[in-house]
Write a structure and sequence with these properties.
Blueprint: H1 28-36, H2 38-49, H3 52-68, H4 79-97, H5 107-137, H6 140-151, H7 156-163, H8 167-193
Length: 194
């Protein structure tokens, strides 16, 4: 039978009809955050589950849960913490529902790993806040150099030419700025810890 001989409704019953989403207009920041966090969530799930294939499956489930529950996320808060909590609960549900044999890691150990990962995320946030403070303490010229080189990915040669310096002089300038930032960040983190 040729495709032209098929009745138009023959396939309509086999196409799944998905219910409309309770939050039909996701915000661009939510979509951007969800996309940006895919690799980190995958790594987090591999850490929790110890298996790349299981982590992929659970990531898909986590994405569905986050999509369905996007209205529970408050814009402006820590998307990563929210996403990791969703991933954690999906990983725990996966382990409970799995029928293919014993888990390599017990639930208590997974909870401990998740807690450690959460602390790493908190440390990363503290470092970012310290970096932001330290960047604001740089001169306008140095802050502009850092932005152009590391945020805008301006090639070193172009940056040197634009500033009227040799490449080696520009490398040295950027090295000194990085050293200043490193010292400043370490100092701010020590202040926070005490």
């Amino acid at each position: 039978m040729k495709a032209s001989q098929l009745s138009p409704g023959i396939f309509s019953s086999s196409i799944p009809q998905f219910p409309s989403h309770p939050c039909p207009n996701p915000t661009p920041p939510f979509i951007s955050d969800l996309t940006d966090w895919q690799n980190r969530l995958f790594g987090y799930l591999v850490t929790l589950l110890g298996n790349v294939h299981d982590a992929r499956d659970v990531l898909q489930e986590t994405n569905l849960v986050m999509w369905r529950r996007m209205d529970t996320f408050t814009p402006g808060t820590d998307f990563g913490a929210w996403a990791r909590k969703c991933a954690y609960f999906q990983a725990m549900a996966f382990l409970r529902d799995r029928k293919r044999g014993p888990s390599l890691l017990g639930e208590e150990l997974i909870a401990l790993i998740a807690e450690e990962e959460g602390q790493s995320h908190a440390d990363e946030n503290e470092r970012k806040l310290a970096l932001r403070d330290c960047l604001s303490g740089l001169s306008d010229e140095h802050r502009a150099l850092v932005k152009r080189r590391y945020h805008d990915a301006t090639p070193l040669g172009k940056l040197a030419t634009d500033c009227g310096k040799s490449e080696s002089a520009m490398k040295m300038t950027l090295l000194r700025i990085r050293e200043l930032l490193h010292v400043c960040i370490d100092s701010k983190l020590k202040e926070t810890a005490s």
